[in-house]
Amino acid sequence: MLTRRHFIVTTSALFSASAVGPALANSWPTAAQKAAWDAQVTPPAYDPATTNPWGLHPRLLPQRVEARPGLVPGDIHVDATARYLYHIEPGGTAMRYGVAIGRGGLYEPGTYTIRRKVEWPHWTPTQDMIRREPEAYTQFEDGMEPGPENALGSRALYLFEGGRDTYLRIHGTPHPTSMGTRQSSGCVRMVMPHINDLYERVETGVTAFLYPAEGDGPSTAHS
Protein backbone atom coordinates (compact mmCIF):
# COMPACT_ATOMS: atom_id res chain seq x y z
CA MET A 1 0.00 0.00 0.00
CA LEU A 2 1.25 3.45 -0.84
CA THR A 3 1.73 5.51 2.27
CA ARG A 4 3.01 9.00 2.69
CA ARG A 5 5.68 7.79 5.08
CA HIS A 6 6.85 5.15 2.62
CA PHE A 7 8.04 7.88 0.28
CA ILE A 8 8.22 10.91 2.54
CA VAL A 9 9.39 10.51 6.13
CA THR A 10 8.77 14.22 6.59
CA THR A 11 8.49 17.02 4.10
CA SER A 12 11.85 18.36 5.23
CA ALA A 13 13.47 14.96 4.64
CA LEU A 14 12.51 14.99 1.00
CA PHE A 15 12.73 18.67 0.21
CA SER A 16 14.67 21.36 2.05
CA ALA A 17 13.91 25.04 1.95
CA SER A 18 14.45 27.10 -1.13
CA ALA A 19 17.85 26.52 -2.98
CA VAL A 20 -11.57 13.18 -19.98
CA GLY A 21 -13.59 15.56 -21.87
CA PRO A 22 -17.38 15.41 -22.49
CA ALA A 23 -18.76 13.05 -25.06
CA LEU A 24 -20.39 15.94 -26.91
CA ALA A 25 -17.95 18.84 -26.90
CA ASN A 26 -19.43 21.68 -28.91
CA SER A 27 -16.19 23.39 -29.78
CA TRP A 28 -12.43 23.33 -29.41
CA PRO A 29 -10.67 26.64 -28.81
CA THR A 30 -8.36 28.02 -31.46
CA ALA A 31 -4.75 28.91 -30.74
CA ALA A 32 -5.73 32.58 -30.69
CA GLN A 33 -8.52 31.92 -28.18
CA LYS A 34 -6.18 29.93 -25.93
CA ALA A 35 -3.64 32.75 -26.04
CA ALA A 36 -6.33 35.31 -25.17
CA TRP A 37 -7.50 33.23 -22.20
CA ASP A 38 -3.92 32.72 -21.02
CA ALA A 39 -3.46 36.48 -21.04
CA GLN A 40 -6.75 36.92 -19.17
CA VAL A 41 -5.79 34.61 -16.29
CA THR A 42 -2.14 35.71 -16.01
CA PRO A 43 -1.56 38.86 -13.91
CA PRO A 44 0.39 41.73 -15.49
CA ALA A 45 4.19 41.53 -15.07
CA TYR A 46 3.73 38.02 -13.72
CA ASP A 47 6.60 36.68 -11.60
CA PRO A 48 5.87 33.18 -10.23
CA ALA A 49 7.84 33.75 -7.04
CA THR A 50 6.25 37.07 -6.07
CA THR A 51 3.03 37.74 -8.00
CA ASN A 52 0.14 37.14 -5.63
CA PRO A 53 -3.10 39.02 -6.39
CA TRP A 54 -4.96 36.05 -4.88
CA GLY A 55 -3.71 36.78 -1.36
CA LEU A 56 -2.18 33.33 -0.89
CA HIS A 57 0.21 32.52 1.94
CA PRO A 58 3.70 33.14 0.50
CA ARG A 59 4.67 29.50 1.09
CA LEU A 60 2.15 28.50 -1.59
CA LEU A 61 3.89 30.46 -4.33
CA PRO A 62 6.18 28.52 -6.69
CA GLN A 63 9.78 28.14 -5.64
CA ARG A 64 12.73 25.93 -6.48
CA VAL A 65 13.82 23.68 -3.61
CA GLU A 66 16.38 20.96 -3.02
CA ALA A 67 15.16 17.39 -3.63
CA ARG A 68 16.26 14.22 -1.91
CA PRO A 69 18.78 12.23 -3.95
CA GLY A 70 17.37 9.32 -5.92
CA LEU A 71 14.05 10.83 -6.98
CA VAL A 72 13.35 10.48 -10.69
CA PRO A 73 13.50 13.73 -12.70
CA GLY A 74 10.18 14.46 -14.35
CA ASP A 75 8.05 12.75 -11.71
CA ILE A 76 5.47 14.55 -9.58
CA HIS A 77 5.03 14.14 -5.82
CA VAL A 78 1.98 15.58 -4.04
CA ASP A 79 2.35 16.07 -0.28
CA ALA A 80 -1.31 16.22 0.66
CA THR A 81 -0.64 17.18 4.26
CA ALA A 82 1.51 20.22 3.47
CA ARG A 83 -0.54 20.95 0.28
CA TYR A 84 2.54 20.98 -1.94
CA LEU A 85 3.18 19.57 -5.40
CA TYR A 86 6.82 18.89 -6.30
CA HIS A 87 8.03 18.45 -9.86
CA ILE A 88 11.46 16.79 -9.75
CA GLU A 89 14.15 18.37 -11.90
CA PRO A 90 17.53 17.10 -13.09
CA GLY A 91 20.41 18.11 -10.86
CA GLY A 92 18.80 17.53 -7.48
CA THR A 93 16.17 20.28 -7.39
CA ALA A 94 12.39 20.43 -7.62
CA MET A 95 9.83 23.09 -8.37
CA ARG A 96 7.34 23.34 -5.52
CA TYR A 97 3.80 24.65 -5.95
CA GLY A 98 0.96 25.15 -3.49
CA VAL A 99 -2.16 23.10 -4.23
CA ALA A 100 -5.66 22.28 -2.99
CA ILE A 101 -6.77 18.66 -2.60
CA GLY A 102 -10.02 16.73 -2.31
CA ARG A 103 -12.22 17.21 0.70
CA GLY A 104 -13.15 14.41 3.08
CA GLY A 105 -12.86 10.92 1.62
CA LEU A 106 -12.74 12.14 -1.98
CA TYR A 107 -8.96 12.51 -2.21
CA GLU A 108 -7.38 9.38 -3.76
CA PRO A 109 -3.76 8.74 -2.74
CA GLY A 110 -1.90 6.38 -5.04
CA THR A 111 0.65 5.99 -7.80
CA TYR A 112 -0.51 7.18 -11.22
CA THR A 113 0.81 7.76 -14.71
CA ILE A 114 0.18 11.00 -16.58
CA ARG A 115 -0.97 9.78 -19.97
CA ARG A 116 -2.71 12.89 -21.31
CA LYS A 117 -2.21 16.66 -21.19
CA VAL A 118 -4.76 19.20 -22.42
CA GLU A 119 -4.67 22.98 -22.77
CA TRP A 120 -7.98 24.63 -21.92
CA PRO A 121 -9.84 21.32 -21.52
CA HIS A 122 -13.50 20.51 -21.56
CA TRP A 123 -14.96 19.17 -18.32
CA THR A 124 -17.80 16.85 -17.41
CA PRO A 125 -18.67 16.01 -13.77
CA THR A 126 -18.69 12.32 -12.96
CA GLN A 127 -21.91 10.53 -12.10
CA ASP A 128 -20.70 10.27 -8.49
CA MET A 129 -20.36 14.05 -8.33
CA ILE A 130 -23.84 14.53 -9.76
CA ARG A 131 -25.30 12.07 -7.24
CA ARG A 132 -23.54 13.74 -4.32
CA GLU A 133 -24.36 17.33 -5.27
CA PRO A 134 -27.08 17.41 -7.94
CA GLU A 135 -27.79 21.08 -7.31
CA ALA A 136 -24.20 21.98 -8.23
CA TYR A 137 -23.43 19.54 -11.04
CA THR A 138 -26.59 18.43 -12.87
CA GLN A 139 -26.49 21.55 -15.02
CA PHE A 140 -23.11 20.41 -16.39
CA GLU A 141 -23.95 16.75 -17.00
CA ASP A 142 -23.51 17.22 -20.76
CA GLY A 143 -20.15 18.94 -20.29
CA MET A 144 -18.73 22.40 -19.78
CA GLU A 145 -16.96 24.23 -22.59
CA PRO A 146 -13.36 25.44 -22.12
CA GLY A 147 -12.70 28.89 -20.74
CA PRO A 148 -11.57 30.77 -17.62
CA GLU A 149 -14.67 29.66 -15.67
CA ASN A 150 -14.28 25.97 -16.56
CA ALA A 151 -13.75 23.76 -13.50
CA LEU A 152 -10.46 22.40 -14.93
CA GLY A 153 -9.14 25.84 -15.69
CA SER A 154 -6.38 26.45 -18.20
CA ARG A 155 -4.53 23.13 -18.15
CA ALA A 156 -5.13 19.55 -17.03
CA LEU A 157 -2.86 16.55 -16.48
CA TYR A 158 -4.85 13.30 -16.65
CA LEU A 159 -4.00 10.55 -14.16
CA PHE A 160 -4.23 6.91 -15.24
CA GLU A 161 -3.76 3.53 -13.56
CA GLY A 162 -2.38 1.35 -16.31
CA GLY A 163 -4.62 2.08 -19.28
CA ARG A 164 -7.59 3.18 -17.15
CA ASP A 165 -8.50 6.83 -16.80
CA THR A 166 -9.14 7.42 -13.08
CA TYR A 167 -10.96 10.73 -13.73
CA LEU A 168 -8.46 12.30 -11.35
CA ARG A 169 -6.68 15.38 -12.65
CA ILE A 170 -4.02 17.86 -11.68
CA HIS A 171 -5.60 21.00 -13.05
CA GLY A 172 -6.10 24.72 -12.90
CA THR A 173 -9.05 26.24 -11.10
CA PRO A 174 -11.18 29.39 -11.30
CA HIS A 175 -11.03 29.38 -7.46
CA PRO A 176 -7.38 30.26 -6.70
CA THR A 177 -8.09 31.18 -3.08
CA SER A 178 -8.78 27.50 -2.39
CA MET A 179 -5.02 26.80 -2.43
CA GLY A 180 -3.87 25.18 0.79
CA THR A 181 -7.32 23.79 1.54
CA ARG A 182 -9.42 20.68 0.96
CA GLN A 183 -12.21 21.82 -1.35
CA SER A 184 -12.09 19.78 -4.55
CA SER A 185 -14.06 16.67 -5.47
CA GLY A 186 -10.89 14.59 -5.53
CA CYS A 187 -8.52 16.30 -7.95
CA VAL A 188 -5.39 18.34 -7.22
CA ARG A 189 -6.02 22.02 -7.96
CA MET A 190 -3.47 24.68 -8.86
CA VAL A 191 -3.56 28.41 -9.59
CA MET A 192 -3.86 28.76 -13.37
CA PRO A 193 -0.57 30.60 -14.04
CA HIS A 194 1.17 28.02 -11.85
CA ILE A 195 -0.17 25.01 -13.72
CA ASN A 196 0.55 26.75 -17.01
CA ASP A 197 4.20 26.76 -15.95
CA LEU A 198 4.09 23.15 -14.71
CA TYR A 199 2.30 21.95 -17.84
CA GLU A 200 5.20 23.00 -20.05
CA ARG A 201 7.65 21.05 -17.88
CA VAL A 202 5.71 17.77 -17.57
CA GLU A 203 5.97 15.00 -20.16
CA THR A 204 3.37 12.30 -20.66
CA GLY A 205 4.41 8.94 -19.25
CA VAL A 206 5.83 10.28 -15.99
CA THR A 207 4.68 9.05 -12.59
CA ALA A 208 2.60 11.09 -10.16
CA PHE A 209 2.73 10.03 -6.51
CA LEU A 210 -0.21 11.30 -4.46
CA TYR A 211 0.49 10.73 -0.77
CA PRO A 212 -2.22 10.40 1.87
CA ALA A 213 -3.17 13.38 3.97
CA GLU A 214 -2.64 12.96 7.69
CA GLY A 215 -5.76 11.57 9.35
CA ASP A 216 -7.35 10.31 6.15
CA GLY A 217 -9.04 6.95 6.14
CA PRO A 218 -9.58 4.90 2.96
CA SER A 219 -10.93 6.93 0.06
CA THR A 220 -14.17 5.79 -1.54
CA ALA A 221 -14.57 7.95 -4.65
CA HIS A 222 -12.62 9.87 -7.22
CA SER A 223 -13.97 12.59 -9.44
Description of the molecule:
This protein is α+β, with helices and mostly antiparallel strands. The protein has a single domain (4-18, 56-210), classed as L,D-transpeptidase catalytic domain-like, CATH 2.40.440. It is 17% helix and 29% strand. Strands 1-2-5-4-3-12-7-8-9-11 form a ten-stranded mixed beta sheet. A two-stranded parallel sheet has the order 6-10. The chain starts with a helix and ends in a 13-residue tail after the last strand. Residues 1-25 and 217-223 have low confidence and may be disordered.
Question: Layout of SSEs?
Answer:
Blueprint: H1 4-7, H2 11-14, E1 15-18, H3 31-41, E2 63-67, E3 76-79, E4 84-88, E5 93-98, E6 101-102, E7 110-119, H4 127-132, H5 134-137, E8 155-161, E9 164-173, E10 182-184, E11 188-191, H6 192-201, E12 207-210
Parallel strand pairs: 3-12, 6-10, 9-11
Antiparallel strand pairs: 1-2, 2-5, 3-4, 4-5, 7-8, 7-12, 8-9
Quick structural summary:
With 223 residues, the chain is of the alpha+beta class. It is built from 6 helices and 12 strands. It has a 10-stranded mixed β-sheet with strand order 1-2-5-4-3-12-7-8-9-11. A two-stranded parallel ribbon has the order 6-10.
Please tell me the total number of domains.
Answer: 1
* CATH fold descriptor: L,D-transpeptidase catalytic domain-like
Class by alpha and beta content:
alpha+beta
Oligomer: single chain
Strand segment tally: 12
Tell me the overall shape.
globular
Describe the biggest sheet?
10 strands, mixed
**N- to C-terminal distance:** 21 Å
Strand order of the largest sheet: 1-2-5-4-3-12-7-8-9-11
Quickly give the CATH architecture.
Beta Barrel
- The SSE order reads HHEHEEEEEEHHEEEEHE
Q: How confident overall, as mean pLDDT?
A: 85
